[in-house]
Amino acid sequence: MKGLARIIVALGIATVFALPATPGLSAGAELPGKKYLGGTDDAVNDELNQVYTEMFQHSLKERPQPNALPDIFGPGAVLKAGNLVMKVTNYGIIGNPFTTSSDPSGQWPGQSGVEYLNAIALAIGGVEIENGQLIRRVTYFPEWRPPSLDAEDKIYTAYEGIVGGNRFQDDDADGKVDEDFLDGRDNDGDGRIDEDYAAVGQQMFSCVMTDFSLQSLTSNVREQHVPLGLRVEQKAWAYSLTSPNLTNFNVVEYNIINVSGNVIDSLFVGWLVDFDSGPVVVSNYFQDDQDIPGYPQGWFIYDFTQGGQVRDNRSQFPHAPGLAVSSDSALCPRDTIRVNGFSIGDDNGDDNRTTGLPSFLLFGYTLDPLGLDGPRRVQFRAFRSFTSGTPYGQGGNPAIDQQRFEFMSSLQNVETDQTNPKVGLITADPGDQKGDQVQWCSVGPWLHVKNGQSILVTIGVAVDRGTVLLGRSYRAAYDGYINAPDANRGMLGKQLLDEYPSLNTAFTAQLAYEGIWDHNANYPEPDFHGRETALRADPGQQFQATEDCETFSRTILVTDRQYYWFDFDCDYCTGVWDYQIGSSNPSDPSVGGMIHKTWNSSAPPPSPITDASISYNYSENPDRTVVPGGDNRVTLAWDNLSEVTPDPAPPNLFDFRGYKIWKVADWTRPVGSPGPSEDQWSLVAEFRWFNYYDTNGNPILNNLVTVPDPANPGQFITKCPSVFIPSLGANKDICLNRGDLWNQQTGEVIHPDTTLACNPDGHGGCEQKTSCIIPPGRTSCIQVTRDRYPVGRYRYLDTSVKNGFIYFYSVTAFDSTNVGMTESRRSAVEAEGIVPQASTKTGKHVTVVPNPYKGYAAIPQRPSAWDLTPNATDPTGTHIDFLGMPPGKWTLRIYTVAGDLVQTIHSDDPVNDSIRGDLSVNGTTYHGYNKQQDNPNDGEARWNLISRNGQDVVSGIYLFTVNSDQGVQRGKFVIIR
Fold first, then answer.
1. Domain of 742?
2. Residue 425: which of 362, 514, 357 has the closest Cα?
3. CB 882 within 8 A of CB 972
4. pTM for the complete prediction?
5. Same domain, 560 and 638
6. Do 870 and 22 touch, CB atoms closer than 8 A?
């Protein structure tokens, strides 16, 4: 029994559900690569019903109704911008242990069908005083739930640079910064929703979880759940495939807020980490894994001045005189970068299919420089690794709250000797058995968390190349590094990064987390070098605070009138202050202070939203102006999101240059595949954006050139330039106006649809974005404002398609940088597939394709070449289509030759509801699926060969009737199985 599944059995809860009987799959059988509870245990299902009552309001054939929950019966929130494709939920789980969803859990690289993660479960423990007794409580999966079942309490998506989501900026000019967490609620009471939040990465999911909702209180059927009174604001994000070195990890950030009304003592945060490595097509692929504790981990010196170039504002040369630093040296020339993590690996690499190692990384959390109320250093508090099924007393899984708190508060397997250079690192030895490996880890404690106070904890999941043998050799290699003379460490550190890919990824990710130090008047700022801690007394109170370092000390009276800044950690590398700016403003030296901007990196523009998007392409969408699927054609349309999104790294330039159109035409849904893999995408076209400025910063309106007039010597004419077109093998006049897209290979030009109104900003104007451009020949920025337009701004017609087949499209955006072009990621899931549809026909023209239908066991032998591999949401994987359906409403009935009704299909019945849920838009809920008649021109209906009794139909001759305002049509078809 799998690690996480075993925990769930002990708790009487479940991460997965029993599957209905399907053709070729008996109830209780295991799908390859999936681990779950059997499908025939009524007692188990009764317990599941108690735990997830809101999920069991309908049969498994229907859609669960609460919008507040991710759809575990289909596609949910999946990070797919980078190499690690990972599912996110809003009830304490990262990953996808649910067999009823085909979403990847943690596949790499891309949607490869090779998993490296089952699930990561969040646990938070604390101590409360009850009747004079100290009560230790832990909130653990599934006690984390959305605050309610309201449609607003769902997972939201964003990206860095989105309107209203600029980090460290006052987006709504109300004097506050990032005050409105992205959760569909008015958190700051200004009457506006999600108008000023902090978005990060090229794809981000945000949600809120609590441990005191009605569903939380009734979730645990084996042990009474008593909430701590916590609200967790969770963000998870990924970086684009072309972001340098940032694509092999995803980030999860927890902002843990005490809303109990009381002080919580000794708060610990922990995780069950259940990594699995192997191809999902292989049964029990997780049974030959081996653990690799302490890889990657260590501390490394990072030199800010390598190569003679200062790359960090902390270097500060010159700096204020009189410091314990030589006046002719940098104030802070280097820093110590700590890497905290652990991994597991597949024993044999599965014949070179499983080439990576998954790692759990700890990036950072809220620190207390004095170490009085919280940790002074980022490190694990406790760690243990075991094979599934190991009892707690023998180093295995903590199954109840008492055991969880006992483990999380321990110092198990972590170096505590402050004189040891490995202090804070994991000391556990690797296990000697292969099997289903599970880890537990924790951080903390925060000793007195007041009501309203928050703790920020950031972790990551990474996968990079490696083997168990390589990972287990790291410990000896690191010992050689740590024991080497100081002069040799720089060289040895570089060798470690080159030799150990997982370490290199973790180190790069940690550097991205460390970010930069920058001026920002929106935040309180230090008033001198090294003063990292701001103190302010509670209203009406005052107290004395003393900083006492080796070379200086001072005592300050702290009042409630302002912030007072202190250097409690005696480190000039924290609390950064700009000497040149601050010393020139003696009346207010804080103007020289800098804030810590974590996760600062350059990135390509986000991919635009297309008409293939789940949030756009559904029948009930009142704003859908472009239907992608037509008669033997696909009209691909997209918006201009990429053009109005500046690079998140300073100077935040508009650097978008063009689009690429990608397509997948031969996807068969291999087992475990949520969508096309990386190598299935084919480039259809590349378009450059004609949007240039002259050296004075004026926009260039067209590409007209002045050339000699061949008919009148000595005269000149203005014309479109003649350009060599490779696909034609000849020159062609290319006429471009500002904003056009043009294909340099084919000469095709796409004009923006100027008839579409811009997106409204809610105040009678256009949604806009203002940022910077640097025209040729200039070094300074020019401010430019761009309007945001909806899907349909650009359109591309693809006629190389066939009706009834599934196609995938991805429009990526690329930019231009000083290191070359970067491009957003091409990706799609099954729910974003486009199926061209035959047009409606008046009169009696309904036909059946294929006819006869031959349901051979081997899919390639079937005449219906559009068949897909069956899965839990599509148990047959096949369909026959009725072409030439009439316009308007109709009813299709299918009978046996004996006259028995087999199935009834209506024009407004759903087609893909098994992989799509409801959508809530501006307070209105819509069915997010496509209907049989998806649009007025859709004359094709689909039947999956399942009877109205839920059974797979048998061989025979079948009759059908179509009733509409065109009259009644009749026909017949044959099924051979």
1. 629-701+737-832
2. 362
3. no
4. 0.72
5. no
6. yes
